[in-house]
TrEMBL record:
Protein name from the UniProt record: DinB superfamily protein
Any single Pfam family the record assigns to this protein: DinB_2
Xref: InterPro entries: DinB-like, DinB/YfiT-like
Signal peptide span: none
Gene3D superfamilies in UniProt: dinb family like domain
DinB-like domain location: 13-149
């Protein structure tokens, strides 16, 4: 086992896919597209946001490991969701894309050295973040949205 596999728990990262699949299991298309309020996201839109976030995270990871003094891009989540008409998409297709990004990133992560994991960049707030802290933040971000999905499901009842 390499150093980074001992320190970095990639299972928590890849397990977010299973957690999301379980969270939406048994929901109908109508339930997946239900919005608790006009300005709130549906479950499908939450999944779309997480797929978008995974794309941005993937880009940030590559900037951190390949550039010195990397400047990490921000993105406007609400317009990304609304202007992509995310709620017209298929939750299953979106979740499959999310899972594919996780799998692809895991392949990269398994090749990285301890030095790579310690590399850093500056986020849009000007804060320095390491690759490792970025991965942990991604996992926490998914957990936050799993809570949001549970609140949407509760509103359906």
């Amino acid at each position: 086992m390499s150093y980074n596999q001992q320190v970095i728990d990639l299972a928590a990262y890849t397990d977010t896919y299973r957690q999301l699949k379980e969270a939406i299991a048994g929901l109908s298309e109508e339930q997946l597209k239900y919005k608790p309020a006009p300005d709130k996201w549906s479950v499908t839109e939450v999944l779309s946001h997480l797929a978008d976030h995974s794309i941005v995270f993937s880009f940030r990871v590559r900037k951190i490991i390949s550039e010195d003094n990397a400047q990490l891009a921000a993105f406007q989540q609400d317009p990304w969701v609304s202007r992509s008409r995310a709620n017209k998409g298929s939750a299953s297709d979106i979740l499959d894309a999310f899972g594919a990004l996780l799998a692809y990133n895991k392949l990269l992560f398994q090749r990285l050295s301890a030095e790579d994991w310690a590399r850093s960049g500056a986020n849009f707030k000007g804060e320095t973040v390491t690759l490792e802290s970025s991965l942990l933040a991604f996992i926490r971000h998914v957990q936050t949205h799993l809570g949001q999905i549970e609140r949407i499901k509760s509103a359906l009842a």
